[in-house]
Every structure is written in structure tokens, then in C-alpha cells.
């Protein structure tokens, strides 16, 4: 049987320790895991795609079967190009379930041979999201241990430079 490739798609703006936990779990289950950053994002991101990829690469450096890539358009088309067997998504709490179910079923309708695999992050990360981490840091709260140290550092730099630019 050929090596099993899984795609872990997302915005990763920025990567949190919850994402990282999921990458570690996924990388133990599949021969190759591709973290795929969506480039045609509608929301106004804090980090550019390049910056997000750079942080993802930095924090997954030691993981030999993990790579980081970008994609635009439909994730199922990207997965096909990568010859992936599955998509990986994390479910933290019940509130994630509805959105994830809709996406998984829509993706299955678009590409019936591609499975979506759900994994739960460690329970200590069940409340951690990129959105909340940004909000807390924006208001000078601590995000220590919720994101990798390099991400915390870059978020602080980014927020400081935005404040500088806004006078
Ligand atoms: O981290 P996010 O923002 O929850 O990730 C959402 C993502 C990128 C997985 C989703 O928006 C996506 O796959 N977008 C690509 C376009 C696509 O295929 N849309 C149909 C999915 S049902």
C-alpha cells in the first residue's frame, strides 16, 4: 500500500499550541502530513501567508514527516494534486462540530474518496483559538504556553508595528 498522506488545512493566523498538538498527533498516524495554509482568505489576517508559513516551518522543523505548503481554491482539489487520502481537522469542543460536519460532508460530496479525519487536541488546549489568542494579546494579556514562543514574539512585534503605524 502507498504511503498515507494527510492534509491539515487551515488559516493558521497564527499557529497555536492546539494546532501544534494536532500536527504531532496526525504525524504519528500518517506517513506524511502536509500543513496547508489557505491563501485566499476572506478575513483580514494579522499575519501574511508568508509569515504564517515561516512560523509553521519554524515550529515543525524537527518533524521529518511534516511539510508546510499553501493552497488556494478548493481543498479537495489541492488534496487530489497532493495524492492525499485524508484531510485532518481538529475538534476542540461541541461548538466546533456543526461547522466541521458541514465542511466534511461538503468536501465528501465534492470528492467522495477523500476522508476527513477528526482528532481532539490535548484537553488543555480545548479553549485555545487563533482568534482568542490575538484578542488577548491585543489587549496586553498573556498568551504564554498557548502559542509557541516564536509565535508569541512575532505577534508582539506585529501588534507593536501596527500600533506604531497607526500613530
Ligand atoms: O482554520 P480555518 O479558517 O477554520 O480553516 C478553514 C479551511 C481553510 C479549512 C476552509 O475554509 C477551506 O478548506 N477552504 C478552502 C475552500 C474550500 O475548499 N471550501 C469548501 C470547504 S467545504
Structural features, described:
There is one protein chain. It contains 6 helices and 5 strands. With 167 residues, the chain is α/β, with parallel strands linked by helices. The mean pLDDT is 95. It is globular and about 50 Å long. The longest helix has 17 residues, at 94-110. The chain has a single domain (5-165), classed as Rossmann fold, CATH 3.40.50. Helix 4 links the parallel strand 4 (86-90) and strand 5 (115-119). Strands 3-2-1-4-5 form a 5-stranded parallel beta sheet, with helices on both faces. Bound molecules: 4'-phosphopantetheine. Residues 9-11, 38, 74-75, 103, 106-107 line the site of 4'-phosphopantetheine (PNS).
User: What is the strand tally?
Assistant: 5
Return the domain count.
Answer: 1
Strand order of the largest sheet: 3-2-1-4-5
Low-confidence stretches: none
- Strand % is 15-25%
Write the layout of secondary structure elements.
Blueprint: E1 5-10, H1 17-29, E2 32-38, H2 49-59, E3 66-71, H3 75-81, E4 86-90, H4 94-110, E5 115-119, H5 130-138, H6 149-165
The chain binds 4'-phosphopantetheine (PNS).
4'-phosphopantetheine binds at residues 9-11, 38, 74-75, 103, 106-107.
Record keyword descriptors for this entry:
Rossmann fold; 5-stranded parallel beta sheet; 17% strand; globular; 6 helices; 167 residues; alpha/beta; binds 4'-phosphopantetheine; single chain
Amino acid at each position: 500500500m502507498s504511503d498515507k498522506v494527510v492534509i491539515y488545512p487551515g488559516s493558521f493566523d497564527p499557529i497555536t499550541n492546539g494546532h501544534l498538538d494536532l500536527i504531532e498527533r496526525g504525524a504519528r498516524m500518517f506517513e506524511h502530513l502536509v500543513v496547508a495554509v489557505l491563501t485566499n482568505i476572506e478575513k483580514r489576517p494579522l499575519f501574511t501567508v508568508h509569515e504564517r508559513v515561516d512560523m509553521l516551518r519554524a515550529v515543525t522543523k524537527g518533524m521529518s514527516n511534516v511539510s508546510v505548503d499553501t493552497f488556494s481554491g478548493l481543498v479537495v482539489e489541492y488534496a487530489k494534486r497532493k495524492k492525499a487520502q485524508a484531510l485532518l481537522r481538529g475538534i476542540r469542543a461541541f461548538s466546533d462540530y456543526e461547522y466541521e460536519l458541514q465542511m466534511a460532508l461538503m468536501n465528501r460530496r465534492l470528492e467522495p474518496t477523500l476522508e476527513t479525519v477528526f482528532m481532539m487536541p490535548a484537553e488543555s488546549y480545548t479553549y485555545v483559538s487563533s482568534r482568542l489568542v490575538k484578542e488577548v494579546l491585543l489587549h496586553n494579556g498573556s498568551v504564554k504556553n498557548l502559542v509557541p514562543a516564536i509565535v508569541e514574539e512575532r505577534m508582539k512585534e506585529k501588534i507593536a508595528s501596527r500600533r506604531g503605524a497607526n500613530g
